[in-house]
Amino acid sequence: MSRHSVNVKSDSNNLLFVFSSRRTPRGRFTFQKLLKKFPATTIFLNDYENQWYTSDIVDGEYLSWHSLISAYINNYSNGLSNIYFIGEGMGAHAALKFGAIFNAKRIIAFNPEVTLGMKGSRSHNDLKELAAEHDLRTIAFPEETQSIIISNNGNFFDYYSASEIKHHHANSKVYVLNNFKGDLLEQLRRDTDFQSLIFNMLLKGADAELSSIPRGKLFNSRTVQLIYDAVYSGEYNRDEFVKTLERIVQIAPDWAFTQHLYGLSLDESGFKTAALEHYTRSITLASYQGKSLIKLAEILLSMKRYEEALVHLEPFCRKNNSLKCEELLIQAYKELQLYDAARSEIVRFSENVADKKNAQKLLAMID
């Protein structure tokens, strides 16, 4: 039973399926403590082998996830039950797929992937060849099923998935939280009454707890596909892509990711000063945008603006322990002849990441 567990509520008509997230340890289940008091018989599921609920064999008794879910519905549904599905990431894709198949009343999906195994996706690292049945765009959602997607635009594949789901299933309610990252649940737990958010969304489809969080704009499918193709091909200076970014940064100037992309396109075209403006805007909007900071620092160092580079590099390096950041920081210290500061920083980095080999490489930069 390490893949599934049931919490029976005999006084409730509701049935809730909870699909655990990727890399949830065997014997544990996402949302198990949070949903303990939810008014439903709750079935917790965990594909701890990280096959995204696509594997044929669940255990010795059930041949598939489909047959397992069907058995639970037959056992606990009286024909009048409201059936709900919820999941995050790996579990969100499964919640949407099986929720549609089993005519759920409501599905809540945090950061679902629209198609498993695509380049840029988390599932790409776990899965190989997949059939079309693992593409949510090909699944028909019953009219009576309400699907609610909560995603972000800090991770572009999450944004791409939310956009594609909305495009192919127009009745879906899609929330794109602006400049949130892929660790969506962690941020929602910090910024909202998360239990109330989950309960109200499942039972009522209500979103009051999200009202104070800025939302990102969903652009049309063609625009989003154009960005996807550029991001995962690395071709940032094609004319159509650059023109699209110019339009996006005007319409949605508070989207950190596209500020970064526009900075990249300007940078690769040789417009370094203009690129600085957009890299700076990106990290101002979202301090986690390490790629923007690295690019910004590289330009500042090439312009011999070493003190400005330090202003950005020092706090980021000490928080994130990025080797690339450390290399740029030590280079800045060297150019300013701040050798004691460089050595102290290398010691700090070595102690924090237990990486003596790279610490030696950093020391060689100043010796």
Q: If you had to describe this structure to a student in words, what would you say it looks like?
A:
With 367 residues, the chain is α/β, with parallel strands linked by helices. The protein contains 14 helices and 7 strands. Strands 1-3-2-4-5-6-7 form a 7-stranded mixed sheet, with helices on both faces. Helix 2 links the parallel strand 4 and strand 5. Helix 11 packs antiparallel against helix 12. The radius of gyration is 24 Å and the shape is elongated. The mean pLDDT is 92.
Layout of helices and strands:
Blueprint: E1 4-7, E2 14-19, E3 41-45, H1 65-76, E4 82-88, H2 90-101, E5 106-110, E6 146-152, H3 156-168, E7 173-177, H4 184-191, H5 194-204, H6 221-233, H7 239-251, H8 256-268, H9 272-285, H10 290-302, H11 306-320, H12 323-335, H13 339-353, H14 356-366
Parallel strand pairs: 2-3, 2-4, 4-5, 5-6, 6-7
Antiparallel strand pairs: 1-3
Helix pairs in contact: 3-6, 7-8, 8-9, 9-10, 10-11, 10-12, 11-12, 12-13, 12-14, 13-14
